[in-house]
Amino acid sequence: MSEYQYIHFLAIDRPLDDRQLEYMQQQATRAEITRWEFTNEYHYGDFRGNAREMLRRGYDVHLHYANFGIRRLMFRLPAGLPCDRPTFEAFRPECGLEWHADKNGLGGSLEIYPESEGDTYDEIWDGLEGTLAEIAPVRESLIRGDLRPLYVAWLACTGDDEAREPPVPAGLGELTPALEALADFFEVDEDLIAAAAERAPPLPETVGADTQLQQWIGRLSHDELRELVQRLLASDAAGVRAETLARVRDEIPAAAWPLAEPTRTLGELRATALELQNRRERREQAAAQAAHRQRLKAIAADPQRTITKVQELVKQRSVAGYEQAASELADLREALGPERGPEEARAIASKLHRENSRLHFLTNALRKRFLLD
Fold this sequence. Notes:
By secondary structure, the protein is of the alpha+beta class. The protein is 52% helix and 11% strand. A hairpin with a 3-residue loop joins strand 4 (61-66) and strand 5 (70-77).
């Protein structure tokens, strides 16, 4: 297995200025670097840049993936942690979740970096390019005080069944797409999250972004508003907009996120998750069986439609087409019942074999479904 690493940074609040961009260009010689993004891939190499400093100097989120066990995320939080320090410490396992505070000011970087071996995760070879963009809105959730990312991080980093869970944040059973992407990246089981969510308070009502913006605009003087409009019209509008939204977020503080008292161990959560998984799989199996019965009923009502489809699939001259054609014939056999089905399905299969005797993959597909001798 060859080594593969993927490094990605995104700027969200504002584009990098010239000085920041120059610093980023010093961090890697072959990276693709813009004012909004930094991307690099490595085969038998390592990223030598300073990720924490790169966040402090301009980028806002960072992802590091390696197929030998590394899955790491960092979020730049300019106004500090989404909760007080004692609450944050309750979410911290022995390792894997860290807060790197700036030497000056409130800001810092939140890092999620579970300890893992090379076989801990499934390998990812495609789709990494869009992963950080999917996860990036988690940063805004953290800035607004949402503590669900911290609970997901605890699940990702904790392996000891005796470990006590942290406080359970409101809305844990109603994850946003970005939080789902966060859980997927660390392969946190959906049933484990559902088990934890059984004790979660309901999602709190939050002030909408439009209302928050109106509140902030109401605080500005006439001169400040005029200056803002001039900047929007005279300079980089996207950058000014991002900067303004960041100011709105920082100057309109979020309310404390509701939490439920922790009562369970990770082992108890895993036991509940197994029960939920079994129930879910039974429901899915029952639904699949019901759908299959409906499908067979439709086939029995119009067998010729399936026969035509089988013929078209064979004409595609592809292994996948042959496999699907054999599957369709097997369903036709079942739909027509034990008296008609086997005889008619085998007759169609024999005809296809005679007409396409050199298509060995088709022959194999039909034999696997016991449609040919």
